[in-house]
Design brief:
The protein is an all-alpha fold. It contains 22 helices and no strands. Among the domains are: 78 residues; 62 residues, no CATH class.
Length: 323
Amino acid sequence: MKKRSPFSTILVVVLILVVIIAIVAIFLFVRPKEFSNEDILKNSKGAMDFCKNSPLDKIDECYYNVAQVLYINNTDASVLACLAISDEGFKNKCVGDLANKEENPTKLLELCNEITNDDNFKRDCYWKIDPNTKDLSIDTRLSMCDAGTSRDKDDCYKGIAGELWEIDPSKSLEICKNISDVNMKNECLNNFMGSPELIQANPTIAEEVCSLSSLTMKSNCYNNFARALSAVDPKQAAEVCKKLGDDVQISDCYWNVWFSFDSVILQNYDFSVGLCDILTLKKDECLRRNADIFMNSDEAKAEAICKLMSASASSSCLNNFRR
């Protein structure tokens, strides 16, 4: 066998090294062909693999570009591309830019919820959705309100509560309770008190609404409550009057909701006279109104009422009765 020369051996080794170096260079320095937008749309998986194998400083940008292109017809894949971005700020920008493209409120909400670790992002993203849209459930819309700033949150709650008073007044009341701004809470509650029909159908809710109202609005609330009830239940309306703050307010309320119904008073002697017990300064006036009503129908009861008054008022009442 012919012996190989040292030069030939060295040449073979050199050639092998050159081949190895060339292969390594291809893998390290030569990127695959860039994906065009058309390529991305045709082969989303291939585009994602391309990004994954890109140089480290190009990976996030690649995923971002893939996401924006894919959103045209493959929203799920585009979201996955955004979520593959390692830099949190760039990831949020990617999802936010997708949200800017979306018009469907349900899909937009889903996009907003993809970012869970940035409250500011979520608030700004929710702001793109109209909270009054009917395409979302009430609970979902309320969760959007929760993410807002204080003023935006209160305004959001008020809008939803206003829609629900006639459909679900209990739910509306609970929503109004979440409002922190006193004036806006009053506005929310007054939407209920402005409807006599709602008050008559939901007296328990009306009472709670008034109890929640600010001091400046409370007397007006109870007066509205009583007036609305007087059309269907004067006795209950008169009981509401007792919740007012002083004799003058209570007496005026009685006059509006109880003493306008002579026939009802004549059928409820004990109740009507008992209404005066809560009064101090206006008690005689209240009793005199009862006496006047009974004077022509039951003299004994009228006289008994006169005797319940203070001495001077009783004397005047009895003198008038005995003429």
